[in-house]
Amino acid sequence: MSNAYYAPGDQRAAKVNDLFARIARRYDFLNDLQSFGLHRLWKRRVVRLAQIKSGDRALDLCCGTGDITFALARAGADATGLDFSAQMLEVAKNRSEKLKSPTANSHLPSPNFIQGDAQQLPFPENSFDVVTVGYGLRNLTSWERGLDEMFRVARPGARLIVLDFGKPANALWRGLYFTHLKMSVPLMGWMFCGDASAYAYILESLKHYPAQLAVAEKMRQLKLENVRVINLLGGAMAINYGEKPN
Ligand SMILES: C[S@@+](CC[C@H](N)C(=O)[O-])C[C@H]1O[C@@H](n2cnc3c(N)ncnc32)[C@H](O)[C@@H]1O
After folding, report:
1. Mean pLDDT over residues 116-129, rounded?
2. Does the CB atom of residue 72 touch ligand 1 within 6 A?
3. pTM
């Protein structure tokens, strides 16, 4: 059965945009619920891998409501979050305003949030020391194009880090995990967002995304160094890491 938010080719971006416009307000809540809060740990792992030095310029693509962007800023980076969804960015900017309020007691520099397409970045080459993307590459019309853009805007020595749903190598675990994505995740989407299809999209998009092994292969083709795949929960989630050569 086809999914209301998945379309191949030219229609893809418009459908993905509709999806995130629809779920933006409940996105953070459902992330916590569906991952039992674990997504926070995985995002922290991304930021540790980024090895931020004070003043590093960091770009977080498909930043959504800004979890990774804020964490990069907290680690000392001059952080920019980019997303094409006005509704997701609105949540990120509201979070930023709250941090700036006098009662927040936060002295951290706020990240910069901009609207743009991850496949056509509005930055010159060699601009960033760190480029991250969390749960974003899978949603692009061309994930390869997204990775090419990450590479282009990265400075020599920069760390490129991708966090996304993965495909477990173990067939039994993969079957159980896909059943969870097919049944319980859409059910929770229906219960808390009124939209099962928006959450059934995760499995649909994952089926069309070659996941951690192909991302690592593409990183090697780009001649990134120290390419690593970090499997989480037996490969149900994965982090891809690589460094742009000096
Ligand atoms: C699943 S959310 C991830 C948000 C955040 N990175 C996180 O980990 O919580 C995916 C995000 O990718 C954005 N997105 C999808 N395609 C995009 C594109 N071509 N350019 C920029 N953002 C895009 C969506 O708007 C959405 O906010």
Report:
1. 98
2. no
3. 0.95
